[in-house]
Amino acid sequence: MASSSLSAKQILSLSTHRTSLSKSITADSPLRFRNPNSLSLRPSSLSSSSNVGRARLLRVSASSTAPFMDTSPSETVSSVPTIVDVDLGDRSYPIYIGSGLLDQPDLLQRHIHGKRVLVVTNSTVAPIYLDKVVGALTYGNPNVSVESVILPDGEKYKNMDTLMKVFDKAIESRLDRRCTFVALGGGVIGDMCGYAAASFLRGVNFIQIPTTVMAQVDSSVGGKTGINHHLGKNLIGAFYQPQCVLIDTDTLNTLPDRELASGLAEVVKYGLIRDAKFFEWQEKNMPALMARDPSALAYAIKRSCENKAEVVSLDEKESGLRATLNLGHTFGHAIETSFGYGKWLHGEAVAAGMVMAVDMSYRLGWIDESIMRRVHNILQQAKLPTAPPETMTVEMFKSVMAVDKKVADGLLRLILLKGPLGDCVFTGDYDRKVLDETLHAFCKS
Amino acid sequence: MASSSLSAKQILSLSTHRTSLSKSITADSPLRFRNPNSLSLRPSSLSSSSNVGRARLLRVSASSTAPFMDTSPSETVSSVPTIVDVDLGDRSYPIYIGSGLLDQPDLLQRHIHGKRVLVVTNSTVAPIYLDKVVGALTYGNPNVSVESVILPDGEKYKNMDTLMKVFDKAIESRLDRRCTFVALGGGVIGDMCGYAAASFLRGVNFIQIPTTVMAQVDSSVGGKTGINHHLGKNLIGAFYQPQCVLIDTDTLNTLPDRELASGLAEVVKYGLIRDAKFFEWQEKNMPALMARDPSALAYAIKRSCENKAEVVSLDEKESGLRATLNLGHTFGHAIETSFGYGKWLHGEAVAAGMVMAVDMSYRLGWIDESIMRRVHNILQQAKLPTAPPETMTVEMFKSVMAVDKKVADGLLRLILLKGPLGDCVFTGDYDRKVLDETLHAFCKS
User: So what's the ipTM on this one?
Assistant: First the structure.
């Protein structure tokens, strides 16, 4: 059945231009990143990073080289998955994107190592998709046995206590190094399952099956795994790549509206930091995305994965470029941590955080007012917040931002927009007063 | 001061023969490993492992090519450190071995990244060496600030609750990705600090300063880090390499006799699995080792590190060869887990476990009785146990051995001796009845 459908898989060779890092990476020199259609690659500028040295470029679908802004995105709505490759040398893996992929057992089974599988999921997703996934893992494959562990749902459970439940289940089930962990759920499940896989017996294989827009366009791709500490988000974890990411877009049919919008915040992010044409496409198609038009969603997911995969392939362990994927996240993490994990969804906090980063970029004189206005407009169309919760204070922001992972030798580096749409910098070289101005503009005290 | 002494560092090129893997690695085909003086390297047999592909061979001191059995080992007793390199491509690092190395600040300071250091130690070691290490880190280096976290001492604290204290301290101190963790203590501290470094902010630099024989000859080298689960030892962790290992042999002056003996169990192990001449040297020099003769100890540490580094360089993530370093450990871990973490020291459990593995090898007809006798004799000279605690039952062994990391698809693989002294195999291809016979021979029920 499904195995034959893959003979037509859509891995095509690269014909777009490359993204570059224009300067060597230090805490004090700002890194400037631009639209991938305008620059050439200079890998020598990355030679200080061992990981980047091994990274190669992403192969992307030829469709991305076409003027997609005006074309109708239809190629991903079929049983033939679109494939985006994350190119990381011997740790490369495919992202499968399409409708009905959980009905194609071969896609999953080709990535299962050993005979034992542990599905890690949550109490919301399990009743809807667990049986389907177990079926896909075992169909025509009687030698595989599947265990599952169902965690409570929500960001507030993304902690060490919950993680221990995964280890307990794996050890009690006597899983060995040849087993495979499968993350079935949103970003919290993917991050926790990935970190558990990285740590169980010092590392076992794992697969991502993201079921939210947030996880499908961002968190399931690139190998960032981890848990929260009560003082900050994702402070404990590992870089650990999956064997594959399987995105069945049908799983979005059961996603609550608020979760849908949350994921779109990350889609907007890709446009702002590196893909102006994608942003312009979003401006035209946000109503279709909010109405869950399958073609529009499939295209947004594919283009987001291509952007994410390309960045990760160039800078797996965040020496510089990869940090740009965190536009708005330093402000956003402060909101999530101070306001209470789970009260706002991650994408909601990121949306407000992006508005703050854009505000700061404008105050620095780095972008036109029109960009600020367009960011407001698109987030409002997506029904996302454009300011932090009213209870947030300047001190709450500063306290959490001080433990952000992008602090280096005491200096907080931020991702800020600079130049035309689609260009950003990752820098600690900005006027501290302007950061204060932005914080005070968005907080009562 | 110290910086000049290193111009004479003793890194010399390799002139011994190489160790080989004689077969490709599968769960069902036994891997046979022999004395490094007798075989040639066939790296193609390791091509299935991505890590091995990058590994290169160890540079060892030329002294190891001399007939060291009869020479007086004196070259490491000086202020010039002996250096053993662990060759892992861009993750290579030196092991410094010598007397008084904590009085040479440059050795440590050259490996400190960033301006912030967290020393992880325990309540036994801290009163003796913490000030000295803080002094070495900060002498002439006022830009570096040092935090410390003092954990309770003992294997029973090697768990997630204790690990969280390290994260708490690091986060409360607002350490960032450019910080360095320093493990000051024995194997438990090294394993926990290393895993914390691997996980904090998804990975920060760390340095090992082992203060026990066990840590100096084995656990501080090679990047195995982790914690125990109540159902089994070291089941949660990471492969994560330090920036350097600094072995100041003077720290052994304060080591209790029982800890000294425990470490010697691992020294004996190297002789049995791959270095017959080292074993013969130990047979002659065990009284000197037990009497803490500095020359003898320094030589035993250096030769152990050379063996460990060579194995790790060839097989960092334990595709096969590295598993041989676990001779006796599957039985030993069962003792530690069932009998209660910390009641027996790790080396004591390993000693009894080696006797059991050797007994099983003999029952299989794979070794001469003389080897079994020599193993008994040398462990008795070291005042180490040669049988498990009387309360251990066959069922207790089987229950813990079932979750051993060397189980693959349900098959327990063991390291067993086979052939002349210094040769071993890592295999699941043995008669299950003989394992039962060994367990029954050492347990009442």
Answer: 0.84
